[in-house]
Predict the structure.
Amino acid sequence: MLEDFQQKRYETWRDEKLANYHPNPASLFVEVNNPLQLSSAEKKVITDNCRSNNLSFIKIKPNVEIRGPIHSINAQLGLVDFDQHLCVEDDGLVVIEDTNAPKKGGYVPYSNKALNWHTDGYYNPMDALVGAFSLYCIQPATKGGENRWIDPEMLYIHFRELNPDIVSALSQPTTLTIPTRREDNQIVREASIGPVFFIDKVSQKPKMRFTQRKRNISWLGSIEITDALCALNDFLTGDSEIHHQYKLAAGEGLVCNNVLHNRSSFIDSNQQRRKLIRGRYRNSVSCN
Ligand SMILES: [Fe+2]
Protein backbone atom coordinates (compact mmCIF):
# COMPACT_ATOMS: atom_id res chain seq x y z
CA MET A 1 0.00 0.00 0.00
CA LEU A 2 2.89 2.35 -0.67
CA GLU A 3 1.76 3.14 -4.21
CA ASP A 4 -0.07 6.24 -2.91
CA PHE A 5 3.34 7.66 -2.05
CA GLN A 6 5.81 6.30 -4.56
CA GLN A 7 9.42 5.91 -3.52
CA LYS A 8 10.94 8.74 -5.53
CA ARG A 9 8.31 11.29 -4.49
CA TYR A 10 8.53 10.01 -0.90
CA GLU A 11 12.32 10.47 -0.83
CA THR A 12 12.11 14.06 -2.10
CA TRP A 13 9.45 14.89 0.50
CA ARG A 14 11.37 13.07 3.27
CA ASP A 15 14.61 14.94 2.60
CA GLU A 16 12.83 18.28 2.68
CA LYS A 17 10.93 17.35 5.86
CA LEU A 18 14.07 16.26 7.70
CA ALA A 19 15.93 19.38 6.60
CA ASN A 20 13.24 21.69 8.01
CA TYR A 21 12.15 19.79 11.15
CA HIS A 22 13.05 21.47 14.47
CA PRO A 23 14.32 18.77 16.85
CA ASN A 24 13.97 21.06 19.87
CA PRO A 25 10.33 22.04 20.57
CA ALA A 26 11.49 24.98 22.71
CA SER A 27 12.08 26.77 19.40
CA LEU A 28 8.39 26.47 18.50
CA PHE A 29 7.10 29.18 20.88
CA VAL A 30 5.50 32.32 19.49
CA GLU A 31 4.56 35.21 21.74
CA VAL A 32 1.28 36.70 20.56
CA ASN A 33 0.84 40.38 21.27
CA ASN A 34 -2.77 40.89 20.19
CA PRO A 35 -4.74 37.65 19.65
CA LEU A 36 -7.46 39.54 17.78
CA GLN A 37 -4.95 40.73 15.18
CA LEU A 38 -1.93 38.51 14.64
CA SER A 39 0.98 40.40 13.14
CA SER A 40 2.21 39.06 9.83
CA ALA A 41 5.46 38.00 11.55
CA GLU A 42 3.59 36.08 14.30
CA LYS A 43 1.34 34.40 11.76
CA LYS A 44 4.30 33.45 9.58
CA VAL A 45 6.22 31.79 12.44
CA ILE A 46 3.12 29.85 13.60
CA THR A 47 2.38 28.59 10.10
CA ASP A 48 6.09 27.86 9.47
CA ASN A 49 6.16 25.79 12.67
CA CYS A 50 3.05 23.93 11.54
CA ARG A 51 4.69 23.27 8.19
CA SER A 52 7.99 22.00 9.66
CA ASN A 53 6.68 20.26 12.83
CA ASN A 54 2.89 20.22 12.44
CA LEU A 55 2.77 22.11 15.77
CA SER A 56 3.36 25.58 17.15
CA PHE A 57 3.23 26.82 20.72
CA ILE A 58 1.72 30.21 21.50
CA LYS A 59 1.89 32.47 24.53
CA ILE A 60 -0.86 34.98 25.21
CA LYS A 61 -1.26 37.43 28.05
CA PRO A 62 -3.89 35.97 30.40
CA ASN A 63 -7.29 37.52 29.88
CA VAL A 64 -10.56 37.04 31.75
CA GLU A 65 -12.36 36.53 28.46
CA ILE A 66 -10.11 34.08 26.65
CA ARG A 67 -12.53 32.18 24.40
CA GLY A 68 -12.94 35.05 21.95
CA PRO A 69 -9.18 35.54 21.55
CA ILE A 70 -8.61 31.77 21.09
CA HIS A 71 -11.39 31.58 18.53
CA SER A 72 -9.89 34.58 16.75
CA ILE A 73 -6.34 33.17 16.59
CA ASN A 74 -7.62 29.88 15.22
CA ALA A 75 -9.77 31.63 12.61
CA GLN A 76 -6.81 33.74 11.49
CA LEU A 77 -4.90 30.49 10.96
CA GLY A 78 -7.70 29.17 8.77
CA LEU A 79 -9.24 26.95 11.47
CA VAL A 80 -12.95 27.60 11.04
CA ASP A 81 -14.57 24.26 10.19
CA PHE A 82 -14.94 22.97 13.74
CA ASP A 83 -15.70 19.35 14.60
CA GLN A 84 -19.32 18.80 15.71
CA HIS A 85 -18.66 16.49 18.64
CA LEU A 86 -20.95 15.85 21.58
CA CYS A 87 -19.62 18.53 23.95
CA VAL A 88 -18.62 21.29 21.55
CA GLU A 89 -20.06 24.75 22.19
CA ASP A 90 -21.21 27.33 19.65
CA ASP A 91 -17.74 28.82 19.21
CA GLY A 92 -16.23 25.41 18.39
CA LEU A 93 -14.38 25.27 21.72
CA VAL A 94 -14.77 23.03 24.77
CA VAL A 95 -13.39 23.23 28.31
CA ILE A 96 -11.24 20.22 29.22
CA GLU A 97 -11.39 19.59 32.96
CA ASP A 98 -12.13 16.83 35.46
CA THR A 99 -15.91 17.07 35.73
CA ASN A 100 -19.14 15.14 36.18
CA ALA A 101 -21.10 17.66 34.11
CA PRO A 102 -23.80 16.30 31.78
CA LYS A 103 -22.42 14.91 28.48
CA LYS A 104 -18.83 15.07 29.79
CA GLY A 105 -19.02 12.90 32.93
CA GLY A 106 -17.74 9.36 32.38
CA TYR A 107 -15.53 10.24 29.39
CA VAL A 108 -11.80 9.92 29.97
CA PRO A 109 -10.84 13.29 28.39
CA TYR A 110 -13.04 15.01 30.99
CA SER A 111 -11.53 13.09 33.91
CA ASN A 112 -8.13 13.25 35.58
CA LYS A 113 -7.11 9.90 34.09
CA ALA A 114 -4.28 9.39 31.61
CA LEU A 115 -5.12 9.39 27.92
CA ASN A 116 -3.28 6.86 25.77
CA TRP A 117 -1.71 7.72 22.43
CA HIS A 118 -4.27 8.82 19.85
CA THR A 119 -5.08 11.31 17.15
CA ASP A 120 -8.18 13.41 17.79
CA GLY A 121 -11.39 12.32 16.06
CA TYR A 122 -10.07 8.86 15.07
CA TYR A 123 -13.70 7.67 15.36
CA ASN A 124 -14.98 10.17 12.77
CA PRO A 125 -15.77 8.97 9.25
CA MET A 126 -12.84 9.20 6.84
CA ASP A 127 -14.41 12.18 5.07
CA ALA A 128 -14.79 14.11 8.34
CA LEU A 129 -11.51 13.53 10.16
CA VAL A 130 -9.95 16.13 12.45
CA GLY A 131 -7.21 18.04 10.62
CA ALA A 132 -6.13 20.30 13.48
CA PHE A 133 -6.68 20.98 17.15
CA SER A 134 -5.71 23.69 19.58
CA LEU A 135 -5.20 23.66 23.33
CA TYR A 136 -4.94 26.65 25.63
CA CYS A 137 -4.08 26.37 29.31
CA ILE A 138 -6.05 28.52 31.73
CA GLN A 139 -4.60 26.64 34.69
CA PRO A 140 -2.30 23.59 34.84
CA ALA A 141 -2.80 20.74 37.33
CA THR A 142 -0.89 20.79 40.59
CA LYS A 143 0.73 17.53 39.53
CA GLY A 144 0.74 15.72 36.17
CA GLY A 145 -1.32 16.54 33.09
CA GLU A 146 1.67 16.70 30.74
CA ASN A 147 1.18 16.03 27.07
CA ARG A 148 3.53 13.95 24.94
CA TRP A 149 3.37 14.16 21.19
CA ILE A 150 4.96 12.90 17.97
CA ASP A 151 4.68 14.51 14.55
CA PRO A 152 2.90 11.82 12.47
CA GLU A 153 5.04 12.69 9.44
CA MET A 154 8.18 11.90 11.44
CA LEU A 155 6.63 8.64 12.62
CA TYR A 156 5.77 7.74 9.02
CA ILE A 157 9.40 8.37 8.01
CA HIS A 158 10.67 6.36 10.99
CA PHE A 159 8.70 3.26 10.04
CA ARG A 160 9.11 3.59 6.28
CA GLU A 161 12.89 3.70 6.77
CA LEU A 162 12.84 0.93 9.40
CA ASN A 163 10.53 -1.46 7.56
CA PRO A 164 8.15 -0.32 4.78
CA ASP A 165 6.01 -3.42 5.43
CA ILE A 166 4.87 -1.81 8.71
CA VAL A 167 3.61 1.28 6.88
CA SER A 168 2.09 -0.87 4.16
CA ALA A 169 0.18 -3.04 6.66
CA LEU A 170 -1.16 -0.02 8.56
CA SER A 171 -2.19 1.69 5.30
CA GLN A 172 -4.76 -0.97 4.37
CA PRO A 173 -8.10 0.80 3.81
CA THR A 174 -9.88 -1.34 6.41
CA THR A 175 -7.09 -1.62 9.01
CA LEU A 176 -9.02 -0.03 11.88
CA THR A 177 -12.77 -0.05 12.52
CA ILE A 178 -14.56 1.84 15.27
CA PRO A 179 -18.02 0.25 15.29
CA THR A 180 -21.31 2.12 15.11
CA ARG A 181 -22.25 3.65 18.44
CA ARG A 182 -25.82 3.34 19.63
CA GLU A 183 -27.61 4.87 22.58
CA ASP A 184 -31.18 3.80 23.40
CA ASN A 185 -31.29 1.91 20.08
CA GLN A 186 -30.47 5.11 18.18
CA ILE A 187 -27.33 5.44 16.11
CA VAL A 188 -25.34 8.34 17.55
CA ARG A 189 -22.24 7.74 15.44
CA GLU A 190 -21.77 5.71 12.28
CA ALA A 191 -18.94 3.19 12.09
CA SER A 192 -15.55 4.58 11.12
CA ILE A 193 -13.50 2.34 8.85
CA GLY A 194 -10.09 3.32 7.54
CA PRO A 195 -6.31 3.01 7.65
CA VAL A 196 -3.85 4.18 10.31
CA PHE A 197 -1.47 5.82 7.83
CA PHE A 198 -2.86 7.53 4.75
CA ILE A 199 -1.80 10.16 2.24
CA ASP A 200 -3.97 13.25 2.55
CA LYS A 201 -5.53 14.14 -0.80
CA VAL A 202 -5.12 17.90 -0.35
CA SER A 203 -1.63 18.19 1.13
CA GLN A 204 -0.28 14.95 -0.39
CA LYS A 205 1.43 14.31 2.94
CA PRO A 206 1.13 11.36 5.34
CA LYS A 207 -1.49 11.63 8.07
CA MET A 208 -2.54 9.33 10.89
CA ARG A 209 -5.73 8.00 12.43
CA PHE A 210 -4.96 6.01 15.55
CA THR A 211 -5.95 5.06 19.06
CA GLN A 212 -4.52 2.70 21.65
CA ARG A 213 -7.93 2.09 23.14
CA LYS A 214 -8.78 -1.58 23.58
CA ARG A 215 -12.59 -1.62 23.86
CA ASN A 216 -15.10 -1.17 21.02
CA ILE A 217 -12.45 -1.31 18.39
CA SER A 218 -11.68 -3.83 15.68
CA TRP A 219 -8.36 -4.37 13.92
CA LEU A 220 -8.28 -6.18 10.60
CA GLY A 221 -7.14 -9.71 11.35
CA SER A 222 -3.83 -10.38 9.63
CA ILE A 223 -0.36 -11.31 10.80
CA GLU A 224 1.06 -8.26 9.00
CA ILE A 225 -1.24 -5.87 10.89
CA THR A 226 -0.71 -7.63 14.24
CA ASP A 227 3.08 -7.37 13.79
CA ALA A 228 2.92 -3.77 12.59
CA LEU A 229 0.70 -2.77 15.51
CA CYS A 230 3.08 -4.43 17.93
CA ALA A 231 6.01 -2.47 16.44
CA LEU A 232 4.03 0.79 16.58
CA ASN A 233 2.94 0.32 20.21
CA ASP A 234 6.46 -0.70 21.25
CA PHE A 235 7.85 2.43 19.67
CA LEU A 236 5.24 4.70 21.26
CA THR A 237 5.83 3.20 24.70
CA GLY A 238 9.55 3.90 24.50
CA ASP A 239 11.43 7.11 23.93
CA SER A 240 13.16 8.60 20.92
CA GLU A 241 14.31 11.88 19.41
CA ILE A 242 10.84 12.40 17.91
CA HIS A 243 8.99 11.88 21.21
CA HIS A 244 8.35 15.26 22.85
CA GLN A 245 6.84 16.21 26.19
CA TYR A 246 5.57 19.47 27.61
CA LYS A 247 3.25 20.68 30.35
CA LEU A 248 1.45 23.83 29.25
CA ALA A 249 1.61 26.66 31.79
CA ALA A 250 -1.16 29.22 32.30
CA GLY A 251 -1.27 31.52 29.27
CA GLU A 252 0.38 28.97 26.97
CA GLY A 253 -1.27 27.03 24.21
CA LEU A 254 -0.57 25.06 21.10
CA VAL A 255 -2.05 24.70 17.68
CA CYS A 256 -1.27 21.62 15.64
CA ASN A 257 -2.20 19.56 12.63
CA ASN A 258 -3.56 16.73 14.77
CA VAL A 259 -0.27 15.32 16.01
CA LEU A 260 -0.27 11.94 17.73
CA HIS A 261 -0.48 12.66 21.47
CA ASN A 262 -1.24 11.39 24.95
CA ARG A 263 -1.77 12.90 28.41
CA SER A 264 -0.53 11.80 31.80
CA SER A 265 -2.97 11.52 34.71
CA PHE A 266 -3.15 14.54 36.98
CA ILE A 267 -4.05 15.71 40.45
CA ASP A 268 -6.10 18.81 41.14
CA SER A 269 -6.14 20.69 44.42
CA ASN A 270 -8.94 22.87 45.73
CA GLN A 271 -6.89 25.94 44.90
CA GLN A 272 -5.66 24.76 41.53
CA ARG A 273 -7.79 22.83 39.07
CA ARG A 274 -6.51 21.91 35.61
CA LYS A 275 -8.49 23.81 33.00
CA LEU A 276 -7.76 23.86 29.29
CA ILE A 277 -9.72 25.03 26.27
CA ARG A 278 -9.66 22.84 23.20
CA GLY A 279 -10.70 23.48 19.60
CA ARG A 280 -10.95 20.76 16.95
CA TYR A 281 -11.21 21.44 13.24
CA ARG A 282 -11.67 19.45 10.07
CA ASN A 283 -9.28 21.68 8.17
CA SER A 284 -5.58 22.08 8.95
CA VAL A 285 -3.42 25.11 9.67
CA SER A 286 -3.03 26.62 6.26
CA CYS A 287 0.63 26.51 5.38
CA ASN A 288 0.50 28.33 2.07
FE1 LIG B 1 -6.65 14.26 22.14
